[in-house]
Amino acid sequence: MSKTNGKLKKKQSNFDYSLLFLILFLLCFGLVMLYSTSSYDAMLSGLPADYYLKKQIFATCIGLGVMAFAAAVDYRLWQRFALIAYFVAIVLIFLVLTPLGIERNGARRWIGIGESLSFQPAEFAKLAVIVFLAMIVSKMGKEALSTFRGVATLLVLASVIAGLIAVVTDNLSSAIIILGIAFLMLFVASPKSRYFIIMGVVGVMAIAAFILLGDSFRMGRIEVWLHPEESPLEGAYQVLQGLYAIGSGGLTGKGLGNSVQKLGFVPEAQNDYIFTIICEELGMFGGICVILLFACMIWRFMVIANNAPDLFGSMLVVGIMAHIAIQVVLNIAVVTNSIPNTGVTLPFISYGGTSILFLLAEMGLALSVSLRIRSK
Q1: What CA–CA distance (Å, rounded) separates 83 from 90?
Q2: How many CA atoms lie within 13 A of 177 on its CB side?
Q3: What confidence tens digit (pLDDT) does each residue in 209-244 have?
Q4: Whose CA is closest to 126, among 323, 356, 343?
Q5: What is the C-alpha to C-alpha distance for residues 249 and 334, in angstroms, rounded to an integer?
Q6: Which of 43-57, 196-210, 213-227, 273-287 has the lowest mean pLDDT?
Q7: DSSP labels, 215-279
């Protein structure tokens, strides 16, 4: 009997309930803050107060189904589709240029599906790059990444997707996120850290050149970042109103639902600038709590990646961790005017159906890896 119990213990899985709790809590918190932030803007547009909330709940429910499916399926299965996903991402990016493409706020970044549904190829591309690089690294082995050529080749493959997103869809922020994901995944996998100093410098120079040689809109964002109180550009207004929201919240905030800046002062506050409304209504305390929740999530990713059954699973979770970490840091840095505006949403909290769908798909993959970790 004791031998049988011993065998059962050895086969016991380590499903990460802590990560699952963090995901569900952030989703619920995000829905509450989304309604608080967007209700006035919806009514101002002649829509029901819960318009954005209902759309987000719909996307979240689909996303939870996708997450449950991805968690139940063995993550190793997706290695077979990694190369296909890479090329599908490229095709989807170019579809933006066809009649299926949809233009919003002067940017053509969406594909129309039916009359009321839209899809942003950049969100799929992030997941595709994570799965693709995890597959390549697991096939090549860490030894192959000990050479500059091996690391550079994989970065170039990721840069193809990033470059197309930046040029075809004019979405520099998603391109930066994809490059950041690839950089961190390969940095973790490669035993040679000195290569990344060179590549990091080259990457920063390339992004700087893209901004400087691009249109005046990107240079305008630099001007807004440096002198928001003096700049006549439209983006300066959003930056200043966001800072007013953060500052007026104080330590404990004005109370849930009591934000003043969301009443038309912060444009589309339910998107990129939702963190400013969190700070206004819940104060510095609420903002720090949100950051700590994401820190706990990243810590759980590190635990899963460290104990993953194989290299593919480990790299998969490292890529997901890199995605969440980069996007959270960029979003909070933007709304506090620490860096120029990049149009990055706050994961699980900002409004966006495509974003929440693929974020939950990534969470399902991470939970799938944790489910297949066996206790010793």
Answers
A1: 11
A2: 33
A3: 766 665 556 666 777 766 677 666 666 778 888 888
A4: 323
A5: 18
A6: 213-227
A7: -HHHHHHHHHHH-TTT--SHHHHHHHHHHHHHHHHTTT-S-TT--STTTTTSTTTTTTTHHHHHH
